[in-house]
């Protein structure tokens, strides 16, 4: 049996081709090795169609194919569509098999992280008695969202009693991946010698459930706000362009397996190298270049994922809990 499966994992049909390869957009996506490669881009609900080309290297030699036995291994599968392209028998010449998966549900964005990989791919299998002949072709899926209707600004305070009191403000709490973070830092009380201030973008990948939850933090960007001592009443502007960084949309409880969240971390360092933190979660989303009617249902679902975003900031020092004043 020759079969073709459209699969999604997180974590010799000689070739698999798609019909619209010349016109379909390709995008870069990071591999598990950290390299960037280009893949065909698809969206939720799009049809995936093409052909499997089975080429016999020796036309005079028969290729036997039998029933398919598919071992899922230890992967967590959330989408799987299988089509049989040929009945069990023997091939005596090269053949081509067309396939089409109509309006395929692709609910999550492709993602490669520290401890998890969410992967979409086409797999063509010629099942044989001794060993199967398998060819896979990865594709990338992007999830598009509409602009959030409610997008309030973030206003917070951080301070140490009788030593430091600052207020900071970000213009929004939800940003698309090419957006600009605009904000201000107000110094209301300064009695310690601050020499440096920066804002970091932190990605937090969470895997597992219950007592087996594991967090992996990755600092995506460091943006210097100030170099030198501020004075009382001073206001420092923030203008951080997101387009230059490798970001993904916020992903919450994907298939009850993992989450990806982003935080803006305000860091102040005094002359004695003490560090003061204030951290705030923000939601990131992917804005489509062209609004497609076929994306309307997906966009509506994605918009609902913005609901319930916490606006409560938490002051922390890395590696240990911070006291009430956010001082390490």
TrEMBL record:
InterPro entries in the cross-refs: Arrestin-like_C, Vps26-related
GO biological process: intracellular protein transport
Keywords: Protein transport, Transport
Region (Disordered): 302-328
Entry keyword annotation includes Protease: no
Top-level taxon of the source organism: Eukaryota
Gene3D superfamilies: 2.60.40.640
Family: Belongs to the VPS26 family.
UniProt-recorded name of the protein: VPS26 retromer complex component B
